[in-house]
Amino acid sequence: MTYHIYHYPLDGASRLVRLALGERGVPFALIAQEPWSPDSVLLSLNPAGELPVLVMEDEKERIVLCGVYSICEYLEETHIGSLLGKNPKDRAETRRLLDWFLHKMRREVTALLIKEKIEKRFTNKASPDSTILCAASANIRGHMQYIDWLIKRHGRLSGAELSLADLAAVAELSVIDYLGHVPWEGFEAVKDWYVRIKSRLSFRPLLNDRINGVAPAKNYANLDF
Amino acid sequence: MTYHIYHYPLDGASRLVRLALGERGVPFALIAQEPWSPDSVLLSLNPAGELPVLVMEDEKERIVLCGVYSICEYLEETHIGSLLGKNPKDRAETRRLLDWFLHKMRREVTALLIKEKIEKRFTNKASPDSTILCAASANIRGHMQYIDWLIKRHGRLSGAELSLADLAAVAELSVIDYLGHVPWEGFEAVKDWYVRIKSRLSFRPLLNDRINGVAPAKNYANLDF
Q1: A154 in Cβ contact with A163 (< 8 Å)
Q2: CA distance B116 to B131
Q3: Of B70, B78, B84, which to mutate for an interface test with A (greatest number of A Cβ within 10 Å)?
Q4: Range list of H helices, chain B
Q5: Which of A95, B28, B63, B135 has the most CB atoms less than 10 A away?
Q6: Burial (0-12, 13-18, 19+ Cβ within 10 Å), B124
Q7: Residue A117 — pLDDT band, cuts 50, 70, 90?
Q8: What CA–CA distance (Å, rounded) separates B36 from B11?
Q9: Distance (Å) from the C-alpha of residue B66 to the closest C-alpha of chain A?
Q10: What is the pLDDT, as a whole number, of residue A14?
């Protein structure tokens, strides 16, 4: 069966799907899309026009999965290797944190940065609004403190093993890191946890992502910084 | 085991959790919260300060579940009665539609109406912004067309039986209906499907919800309109 992911390199949800497949050793191909202008191919696959979309295909069938929630749960149900947790309570905690990083942190930080620093550049050429960038930078500190608190309690974000919660957090955080907005100083525990996950084989391809004309922050691809 | 839901009467996600428990015949108590000003009790249960939160308790343990995603999947794993679907592909479709109604329709319609017509009334007493209300009214038409298309294909929103997708759609739609913004005319199939679900025992308590000083639209509680 072939796997194609419609994705955007700096979309945390798309990154999480790449990690969820990568951790399971499933090879896949990527088809890049600009999330602010879904084309007709993407709209025919996902009427919501949103990323990521996973297309699994062989001679007998073609399965189209839309959205990180639907994709990750489908992989959990049908592929070897659980990333949600061992029991219902652990899985509930992983899912709570998935919501946190993919919705709350995204809305309060990542979406603001992407809109101001990337989307504006490729659409109306307007300059980033510094008030909004400031708000995102203030918000990220609260999330770093929360990640720090979780890590100091568990060693990871939830449960006894690496989970989708860790992967979702690094997926989102790595987008913010590309844009140079992660305040690493004073968050040594978060940095150690992040470097550990960044060093995994599944994460390596993400370190090679580049957006035309927008270079990543200096230490984005460094495994030791 | 006792069940308490921290909810807001006009929050679609809270409504969905009430329906998911109601459909399973599980009795529960409600604790109302204003979503725009989470109190210290809610924040101690859910650091995201978001609704709904489900607290399940007996003499031996206390389980706190935060967010509609975590709650609905936990109920699916631990309680009798599946509302997601029979096989992984059906469940993937249900989950795609859950995202659609709980995030996309909420963002494009419900959240705008709640902010303008309810939150402003109870916080700064500002008048609703008519431009935003117009945008929400335009957006709801697209969602009605999509629901209409899905129903005409399946009889329901997904799969062979009533699912969380139907319940999420009516949960969100019923909030918009309370506020009088559902354009029923021209959408007979949607109306029939809505009335069928509205007539279920699990839905009845939602018809009695009232917000102080904001009466529901004329036909909100009518089973035949």
Answers
A1: no
A2: 10
A3: B70
A4: 12-23, 40-45, 68-78, 88-99, 111-113, 120-122, 130-154, 164-178, 188-198, 204-207
A5: A95
A6: exposed
A7: very high
A8: 11
A9: 6
A10: 98
Q: How distant is the Cα of B77 from the closest Cα of chain A, in angstroms?
A: 7
Q: Does residue A149 have a pLDDT over 90?
A: yes
Query: Residue B85: what pLDDT?
Result: 94
SS (H, E, C) B150-190: HHHHHCCCCCCCCCHHHHHHHHHHHHHHHCCCCCCCCCHHH
The model's confidence at residue B90, banded by pLDDT at 50, 70 and 90, is: very high
Residues of chain B in contact with residue A106, where contact means CB-CB under 8 angstroms, are none
Nearest CA-CA distance, residue A116 and chain B, Å: 20
Average pLDDT over chain B reads 96
Give the pairing type, strands A53-57 and A2-7.
antiparallel
In this predicted structure, the answer to whether residue A136 has a pLDDT above a threshold of 90 is: yes
Question: Is residue B60 over pLDDT 80?
Answer: yes
Nearest to A116 by CA among A181, A22, A21: A181
Mean pLDDT calculated for residue range A220-224: 88
Q: Considering CB atoms only, which of B48, B65, B96 is closest to A66?
A: B96
CA distance to A32, B7, B207, B225, per residue, from B211 (Å): 46, 13, 12, 22
pLDDT at A160 over 80: no
ipTM of the complex: 0.96
Interface of B with A (CB under 8 A): 47-48, 50, 63, 65-67, 69-71, 73-74, 77-78, 88-89, 91-93, 95-96, 98-100, 103-104, 146
pLDDT at B128 > cutoff 80: yes
Contacts of B62 (CB under 8 A, 6+ apart): B55, B56
- Tens digits of per-residue pLDDT, B147-196? 999 999 888 887 778 999 999 999 999 999 999 999 999 999 999 999 99
Closest approach of chain B CAs to the CA of A224, in angstroms? 32
